[in-house]
Amino acid sequence: MSAWTDGGTLLTGATGLVGGELLPRLLAAAPDSTVHCLVRARDRDELARRAAELIGGAGVPGGWVKRVRVHAGDVRTPGLGLDESSRAALLRDVRSVVHAAATTRFDHELEDARRTNVGGTRHALDFARAAGARFHHVSTAYVEGDRRGGFHNSYEASKAEAEALVRDAAGELHTTVYRPSIIVGDSQSGRSPHFRVLYDPFKWVIYGKTSLLPCRPEVRIDVVPVDFVCDGLLALGGRAESAGATYWLSAGAARALSIGQILERAEPIVNGWLAQRGQPTVAVPRIVSPDHATPEQAQLFALGAAVMRTHVPYMLDELLFEDARSEAALARAGVRCPPLAQYLEVLLHYALERRFGLP
């Protein structure tokens, strides 16, 4: 029997990319259980509005809506910011906590990132202890940092600290850690509530913020679609043997594309879409690499790096993530990560139709 059927589930980060895709899957995995979601809300009206947006945005079928409970709360606050009656009700019902809440911004000051990523994890763990619940932690493959003992930004550092808290709690709780790499939209529909990280360079080039990419074109990018991440979490987390495990939800070398390959494949997709709609096409961005020593190249690289300062580290040093144990567990569960080449067009069409979330 799946662990998801043992009782209710508390889902943090339900309004995010991963949380929004997990919500209907959790409801499907436990058809007799309730999924409790935390959202920030100042009053009842805002809570009702955000609950409607959450349920509609996640595509929850009408017959399942009654099994979704949306509570005003905040992972950054002790007790998850729940009022006394909500907390008591949740403690009675919840047997699994899926902690997907996080700030994924790369430009936060470390203390700001810690408030959500470390403090939120600490408070979610405290709740799981009080409820006697299993704890499923959505971490990131980038807790490895730069693999030289440092971190590229406050996101990586704070997520590494948060994961350390989960490891420390493993002696008293059934914990499972999931480490996805760069997450993009659904591989079948392209659906995504926001367009960050991999999408940003496309957004900047298409809408005229830059015509340069400061990168090494041979660097491969480890990208996974959100449906793979959520399917993997549900399939692995429902098994008893997942307690205490850490799973890598990554693409690895075989399914990755280099920056140069992404640009080569994206150009006809983007310009074909624009031309069909009578919109101006865009030139392929000029790649400038730090490996070129001419003064002009150095100046161009500095200009591009200023625009993309939070992304440049990932465009210069290749970080691929592979773990044989995780691959084998996913294979046994029938979950497979598709290669980026297979769904890049779907991602770009969805993003283009929504102007990458721009006004």
Secondary structure blueprint with pairings:
Blueprint: E1 8-12, H1 17-29, E2 35-39, H2 44-57, E3 68-72, H3 84-93, E4 94-99, H4 110-117, H5 119-131, E5 134-138, H6 154-169, E6 175-180, E7 182-184, H7 199-206, E8 212-214, E9 220-221, E10 223-225, H8 226-237, E11 246-249, E12 257-258, H9 259-276, E13 286-288, H10 295-307, H11 312-316, H12 324-332, H13 340-353
Parallel strand pairs: 1-2, 1-4, 2-3, 4-5, 5-6, 6-11, 7-10, 8-13
Antiparallel strand pairs: 9-12
Verbal overview:
With 359 residues, this protein is of the alpha/beta class. Helix content is 43%, strand content 14%. The chain is built from 13 helices and 13 strands. The protein has a 7-stranded parallel sheet, sandwiched between helices. Helix 6 links the parallel strand 5 and strand 6. Helix 4 runs parallel beside helix 6. The chain is globular and about 65 Å long. The mean pLDDT is 95.
- The chain-level structural class is alpha/beta
Report the radius of gyration as a whole number of Å: 21 Å
Strand order, sheet with most strands: 3-2-1-4-5-6-11
Order of helices and strands: EHEHEHEHHEHEEHEEEHEEHEHHHH
The assembly state of the depicted protein chains is single chain
Largest sheet: 7 strands, parallel
| Mean pLDDT over the residues | 95
Notable characteristics:
13 helices; two-stranded parallel sheet; globular; about 15% strand; alpha/beta; seven-stranded parallel β-sheet; single chain; about 350 residues; 13 strands
Summarize the structure.
By secondary structure, the protein is an alpha/beta fold.
